[in-house]
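Researcher: Please predict.
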Amino acid sequence: MDGTRKRACALTRAILLHNKRATRQYNRTVSKRLGWACRWLGPLTLVFSFSLSSALAQGKWLDLMPFPEPHEEVIGQAANGKMYVFAGLVAAPVWQPVGLVYEYDPPANKWTKLRVMPLPAHHLSLTEYNGKIYVFGGFIAGRVGNLVAWAPIDNAWEYDPAKDTWKELAPMPTKRGAGVAATVGDKMYVIGGATVAPGTTNPAIHPTTAQRVLGTVEEYDPKTNQWRARAAMPTPRNHTGAGVVNGKIYVIGGRIGSAFIAASSNLNSVEAYDPSTDTWSAPLAKMPTARSGLCVGVHDGRIYVAGGEWQNAVEQTAYRAFEAYDPAANSWSVLPPMALARHGVAGGVIGNRFYAISGDVQSSGTGIAVSTDATAAFEFSK
């Protein structure tokens, strides 16, 4: 027994010694690997923490009074310290314009329904001048055979928010919808959009028909009620956004190939138009997220872009993305995203807030009602 006991004790000591050595080796290996990881991940963690803190320091999202009549393809315009929301579209395959008009009062956090548009249309181009809102083009209900379609129009209107009245203006030279409008000085510019294909006899467009995406630029003078053509945009596009900084119009994102998301491709390109010289810039810094059906606002010399959509054969996507372009630095920054992804969303800036109102939470074409009443504002840090 004594010999057996001695052999057992020797074996135990050998096992313990082996385990002790193995443990030391394991600890040295783990320590070495952790040291390597810390050396590499440490700076990345610091960069991520700094970037996140920097983004959050620029502001925060707030939930506001829900929009009373949710729809996709609403469009917003700020005027006289209030936000006005127009248009709306009953989702495909119905595709009927609603023609709604609502006023939002920020101090009261209250919505007021106003008179419907004299000509209900969707995918309008809006801009503000001297407290009045100018409404250009869009699509009305049309047909291609037995299919509901979009018929581009050339109508132009002046809307007076103080009186809730509409005044018809000289029509645009080009019928189109899904363009953008902007005011520089005493003139207005309608840029891009989509219309029927050259030579077509049908006045409407549909995902199954040929159509034309435009780079057309037309200038409107409210004093003379006259239009004139200007230099075309280098990259024709529709469902785009635009902001004015230091007298230049920056056109951002949008889509090419078609007015309909399923038949088009999104852009992340940026081009600037200078009305004083009637010239376009070279391509500028690309938006981080290529998208169309977005909303735009300008604050403190920067252009903010929220929402949008994208679609391919297997995916239908709406975006939460919220990104800012700085024309002075020709650079982009990524900000905290919206809580709810959406496209066809109304937006704009009043004071130190960027508003995002209603829209659809799913890219279009599902045939399912997916409009949201969400009204949110990104409050910029002072």
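Model: The two ends are 85 Å apart (CA to CA).
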